[in-house]
Amino acid sequence: MRIGELSRRSGVSIRALRYYEEKALLRPDRSPSGYRHFGESDLATVQRIRLLLAAGLGTELIAQILACMVDEARMLDGCRDRLLVERARMSADIDQLTTAQSLLDGLLADRAS
User: Does the model's pTM come out above 0.90?
Assistant: First the structure.
């Protein structure tokens, strides 16, 4: 599929898809005339990119994570430790957010009384 179709199907702008390619998150094939051609697997990759961006990961780390993935259920050898480190970082971030949320909840409860 061409970039316009991937944009429509993924809900991601063409500009963002070009940015993902620039950051080596997507690697479309090119026709002799220079048109980008994406496969069905690129649609799932775009969804993963969006999810990881929303979780606060940078494009460099996302590229590393995507490079570890064979498919949704398998990863390449040597990637487990890197992914475990990132998961621990995310868990710590979640804990901090939960603590901050509890603080805000307490302040709001005090103001409601």
Answer: no
